[in-house]
Amino acid sequence: MVSLYVVVGVPLWYASTTIQPPKVVATVHPAQNRQITTEVTRSIKTGAPVSVLVPNVGINLSVIDGTYDAAKDSWTLTDDKAQFATMTDRPNDRAGNTFIYGHNTDPVFAKLAGLKVGDVAEVKTANNLTFRYVYSGEQIVQPSNTDILNAEPATPRLTLMTCEGIFSQTRRVMFFDFTEVV
Questions:
Q1: Cα–Cα distance measured from residue 69 to residue 170, given in angstroms and rounded to the nearest whole number
Q2: Disulfide engineering: 108 pairs with which of 17, 96, 102, 159, CB 3.0-4.6 Å?
Q3: Which ranges of 1-154 does DSSP label H, i.e. alpha helix?
Q4: CATH of domain 49-181
């Protein structure tokens, strides 16, 4: 017997993100010596980021969409909000890199310089999910290094970025490992 399934209303997710197919588990029933197939699926929890909170350094900011223009070598920025790089993954509990950036000013990300390994960050989404992450380290890079935007970690990661240096000549890139979603 052949079954046909029609899926309606599949959510649109970033084209660069691959949603894993259901895992099929086959078992043999010992008494009847026949194969029974069961689909095991887990839905992806994800959402559009609307705020970022790093309590140990006093950051609680709204997040809006932002983009990087490679032709002009510039980012969209505001003076009082963080920005989600829309070409990266939305916060989720499966995999990928959520990239949020902002100015190195007191109202935005200047306080991130005080981060310590183990500090917690939370990203809240428009659909009322809270993604929690733990700070694991940082890297100073040149502004021309945009490889971080293409990172595809096996587990979910939050990356925060701000300018660094007296003349903002470099970038501080901070990495947070996913712990849970509530």
A1: 18
A2: 102
A3: none
A4: 2.40.260.10
| Per-domain boundaries in the chain | 49-181
Q: Cβ distance 58 to 111 under 8 Å?
A: yes
What mean pLDDT do residues 58-75 have? 89
- Measured between alpha carbons, how far is 37 from 29 in angstroms, rounded to an integer? 10
Confidence check: pLDDT of 35 > 70: no
Amino acid identity, residue 156?
A: P
Q: Exposed (0-12), middle (13-18) or buried (19+): which is 162, by Cβ within 10 Å?
A: buried
Residue of 94, 4, 96 whose CA lies nearest to 43: 94
pLDDT of residue 77: 92
Proportion of the chain above pLDDT 90, given as a percent = 58
3-state class of 55 per DSSP?
helix
- Residue 52: what pLDDT? 98
Tokens 């995999």, residue located: 95
Q: Where residue 43 falls among pLDDT bands split at 50, 70, 90?
A: confident
